[in-house]
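Quick one: structure tokens for this chain, please?
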Amino acid sequence: MHPFAALRILFPRLDALLNNAQEALKKVASDGQARRNQVKKRRLQVINEHFEPDFNAAWPSVVVFQSFLSVMFRRKLPYLIYGLLVLCFAASLSLASEIYRNVDERGRVTYSDSPQTGSRQIPITGQPSRQLYPVDHVYDGDTIILENGKHIRLLGINTPEIESRVRSEEPGGTAAKKWLQSKLQNKPVYLEFDQVKRDKYNRLLAHIFLPNGEHINLALLQNGLAAVSIIPPNGRYSDKLIQAQQQAEQSELGIWSMPEYQTHPIGQIANHTKGWQRFTGTPVAIRKSRKFTRLLFNDKIDIRIANSNINLFPDLAIYIGKKLEIRGWVSRNKDFYSLQIQHPSALIMR
């Protein structure tokens, strides 16, 4: 297959540009250096005119593409290398998260994935990719198993546990599982991944969508069947997830109406150490260490925030002396109790 034909298949929007390029090549084939310089200048103009308006749609790696075009205009590489360059360019589209446009003193425009003096960032707001997979069965309210055997843990949420060999059932666990089963019965799902794709159990982490576009992670929260559980750096859709939880909580749907998930004074933490919990208390001091910053409630109870996530939170000093609601899992070391808070959604000022 001719390399230009391959490009048209992969990138239909380049068709007009490539036609122009082919015509230009025919005209300058027998000309000297002056004509080649003129074509080079025109090529840069065409790239600038055609590509900058399209960054939001699908062009996160223009630097690679400009180099690729330069090779194509020379027409000196074998077709096999042309194909390899096409594949490399396609792979590079998913790598760059920022693109910068720079104009030098001679008016020449270049693009880069790193900023330079006087460069201007071009926003990229393209839709994240989703892949369709058939579902084998639902394991519990926030975990499904695909036909290929892979376990998928739903991102951004947590549902109560179901009964297993190692734990007893938590209230609401069976209801969440049955709801998910009814939603996914005989339906494939689209998976959308975030920055970290696997958890410590090697499960894939994803948002799942039905073919009709329904966001299942979000729907579980809307029905009061799950609680928000955001673990950075995976924070996609966090605002929507938090809003859905707030609405379900205000309407006392699902787990929000159950006595097992009401708040307890943090001084009673020793009586509520199993599963996801809600506590209220007033921190009195802040203590920093190499890995964590802690809000202290007394000499036996604190909450800890990893210093790697501290930039997600407001100044922790605003919490001192204020009544807070803390949501999460309790860890215990002898007679000392702590909750690790990974995202501000689990630390609510009342």
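The chain has nine helices and 19 strands.
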